[in-house]
Amino acid sequence: MYHPFNWRGWQDYGTGQLGDFGCHILDPVFKALELTSPLELTAEAPAMKPETWTDKATVKYLFPGTSRTAGETMKVTWYDAAGVRPPADALTSLPRSATLPGAGSVLIGEKGTLIIPHVAMPVLYLEGEETAAQYDVVDGVDHYVQWADACRGEDKTTSNFDYAGPLTETVLLGTVWIRFPGQTLKWDANKLAIPGFSQAERFLTKEYAKGWM
Hints:
By secondary structure, the protein is α+β, with helices and mostly antiparallel strands. It has one domain (10-131, 143-198): Dihydrodipicolinate Reductase, domain 2 (2-Layer Sandwich), CATH 3.30.360. Helix content is 22%, strand content 19%. It contains 5 helices and 8 strands. It has helices spanning 16-25, 27-32, 143-151, 161-177, 198-201; strands spanning 40-44, 57-64, 73-80, 104-108, 112-117, 123-126, 129-130, 185-186. Strands 3-2-1-8 form a 4-stranded antiparallel beta sheet, with helices on one face. Helix 1 (16-25) packs antiparallel against helix 4. It is globular, with a radius of gyration of 19 Å. The two termini are 27 Å apart. InterPro entries: Gfo/Idh/MocA_oxidrdct_glycsds (IPR050463), Gfo/Idh/MocA_OxRdtase_bact_C (IPR043906).
């Protein structure tokens, strides 16, 4: 019943496609723009079933602006379903020849648009034209070795808890909001609370089996 691949679709064991892929696909966005906890979220999704996650959802995050964003806030939208894409009016900076990956991120800036496929090199478009971007050669890092070095106190992992914790929290907030589609709700990161909507807060944590936490 709990097939090895489909474990993520069961609420008992997984957090749906957003929980599975979100930390990978939103990582370059979160890191490059130096994002912090979102201010509010809105989700659109079919009604949840008792045991499984929906296979289609759109989650809109509103973040505080940073030194790397334009304006006081920054919008990030997660599209979750086969064939679902950002609306055409959001992609007017891209030429017709541009191809969006099946999974990945699109950063729309004031001067250009950056497409970041999940498992391929990014492509930068400036004024509607693809650029021949040059990338610095970076020495490969083995994440197993990073982990061992960090355990010995010799180094810090790239995806350390100080970074990965807030990123994961942000992703998983989206899975909570999917349960309450059509509602724009605030998030109080300091209090780990959803002001004025306590019925959603029961999904923020749970009682773990004794001896495991």
